[in-house]
# Entry
Amino acid sequence: MTVEEWMTAYLALRAPDLAPRTLEQYQDLTTRYIVPAVGSLPLAELRPLAVAQLLAPISAQHPRTAQLVHRLLACALKCAVAYGLIDASPAAAVAAPRHRRADPRWLDADTARALLVRTVGSRWHIAWSLALCLGLRRGELAGLRWGDVDLDKRQLTVSQQVQLIGGHIVTGPPKSDAGLRSLPLPASLAAELAMWRRAQRAPIGPNSYVLSCHADGGPVTPAAIGRALARDMERAGLEPINLHGLRHTMATMAVAQGVHLRVLQGLLGHANISITADTYSHILPAALRNAVDTISDSVL
# Structure
C-alpha cells in the first residue's frame, strides 16, 4: 500500500465524523501537498526525513498550511499504526512547524457604531448588527432562519450554518456541539430584526433565511457576506476588516466590560474555554486591572 492509497483510505474512514468543509480541506491538503511529495512511496518505507523534506518548503512559504499538513499526516500515520499497517509513525519524530498567529483585528466602539450608522437602510445592516452584538460567524449568519428567531421572547437560536463546498451551498450543524446555542436578543436588536422582517422582499416563513437576498428565499453564501462587508466598510470610509473581525470586536468589548470568560465562551460557541482565553489574552491584562481597581475602590 502506498502513502496515497492509505491517505485515500484514511479520509474515507474519517469522512462520517468530519464536517463537509473539514473533509474538503483534508482532501485538498492531501492532493496538493502530500501526494506529490510522498504519495508514491510504500507506506512502510516512509521515513521521518521524507516527512521533514515534505514540510520544509511549505513551511517557508505558508507556515500555517505546513502546520495543518503535519497534523493531518500525523493523525493518518497514527491511525495506520493502530491498524497494524506500520510499526511506528514517521511523523512522530518530526516537530510540528511553528506558526505565529497574526494579531486579530477589531474595531473600537466608535468605529463599530459608525459602521452601523452608515449602513442603516442597507440590506446588510442587520448582518453587521448581529455580528457586533452576538458575535455570529459568517456561516451562522448565512444559515440563520426566521424560525430560529423568537421576537416575542427576544431569543435567537444558532442551529445551523451554511458553507460553500465544491461550488455547492451546503447546510449543516454548527462548527461544534458548543456552536448550537440560544442567545438573548437585546431589545434594540430585536426591534431591528422586526423592521427587517417587514422590509424583506423574500418569502417569510420558518425556514426562510434572515439574510436572504434572493427571490426564492434561499441563503446567501458566507463569501457573499464577506464581500458585502468589504463594500460597506469602503463606502463608509473605514479601514477594511473581515466578518471575523466584527465577531472579535464583540468579544473584545465584552472582555473589556468584565464579562466572564465562561459566559463569553457560551456566547461565541467555543468548544473549550482555552480557545476563548487564548484568543482574547491580549485584552485580559486590562480587564484584570479594571477588576482589581473596582474591588479596591470598594474596600479601600
